[in-house]
Amino acid sequence: MDITIIGTGYVGLCQAVAFSDIGHNVVCVDVAKNKIDMLNNFIEEKSDKLPIFEKGLPELIKKNSARLKFTDNLIEGINSDAIFICVGTPSNENGEADLGALKNVCISIGKNLSLSNKEHALIVTKSTVPIGTHKLVKNIIKQYTNRDFSVVSNPEFLAQGRAMKDSIQPSRIVIGKDNGFAKDTMYKIYKPYEDKGIKLFFMGNTDAELHKYAANAYLATQVSLTNNLANLARAAGADWNKVKKAILEDKRVGRFVNASSGFGGSCFGKDVRELIHSFGRFNVDNSLLKEVINQNIKQKEHFIPRIEKYLSGLEDKRICILGLAFKAGTNDIRGSAAMPIIKGLISSGARINAYDPEAIEETKKELQNFEGKEKITYYNSKEEALEDCDVVLILTEWPEFLEPDFELIKSKLKKAAIFDGRDLFDLKKIESFGFDYFSIGRPDLTK
Ligand code: UDX
After folding, report:
1. Is the pLDDT of residue 53 over 90?
2. Active-site residue among 106, 267, 320, 389?
């Protein structure tokens, strides 16, 4: 099949490569000429840089380069069997999804559809869009063309750090459609997935749009609940790591039971906020999800007072922060607890030594307008970052942080104290090295 993907972010690029890997020809369109140039330079082996860092992506682009085309001109992809919209839908200031990019794409499709050699075009929204957006997509395109077309809602479920894997082997494929043509064409596109044992779910457009938000709302709510329970465990003298292991045996409960400094990433916060607005639009009580967001904000910031208390103030203290990415396996820092924590610690007088294996450049960009940025020093290794610090705070579960050289950490820090935003270490082990230890879901260990 011939497929066009508009938008070469995490979703668009990974899905495009996954489609090419099962034999479809894919034209990737993006208005960002620099991204298109980068991708073309990569394919032509002029550079090894890609716009995003995702495991497996470089190898698969190379493997399937004959079936992939990158362009900033939509006309080159107008004849495809399906045109997938994969542009970003970031939150605007009040938390609603900003559909500006999506609307522009719809106008552009509408204006160019008369050039298509297909009798009936298929427009597929893969971007996460508010409930009811399929109607908006249809209405906008209709304003610019007389050609026949159908709109399909086909949400993605990929998680960063495993986006390539999730695009090739998604947990399920959800297809919202309103006619047989749309169903048949989508079935042909996804048949190779079904052959691999992946279930296809056909439903209405609104069902598919809601499905995406429901999935993220379940997951985000579970993270907030997990963190609430872990906070309780700490206060009550229980060990959340032991509690969660047994909880996982109950198959009715999900798997997001790992305590953390709150959820981050580009989806949970954005999608739950948008869903809160959808509840409002349909006059349904939305207080549960509002609290999911509130709890998450508090969870992200809660280490600031704990560190301040331990050090009897933050003035002139130096804190080592290991982990800037919102989770391991990605260079994305959107929604990462590290950002509010760095800002909070610095505004109370501290200096920061920061290290992350992938996310330093992204952090520098994010904090370029932060007035305390001079108080952050970035290092190329965790060992260097620890030097001369009072305490260390670990925020991301990168594999290289999981089994550290505790003697080395102790020798570098002024105070033998670890703040652990991921509950990574065994309490007995930590105690045997003589650390003061502050985690999320276990009581504090102090000498
Ligand atoms: C998520 C969904 O998993 C994915 O299906 C959807 O398409 C996009 O949003 P992503 O944001 O990449 O993907 O990351 P995910 O692995 O789900 O983690 C989200 C956040 O929750 C991270 O900050 C993570 O550290 C946190 N988390 C996750 C926890 O704090 N505890 C857990 O047990 C699981």
Report:
1. no
2. 267
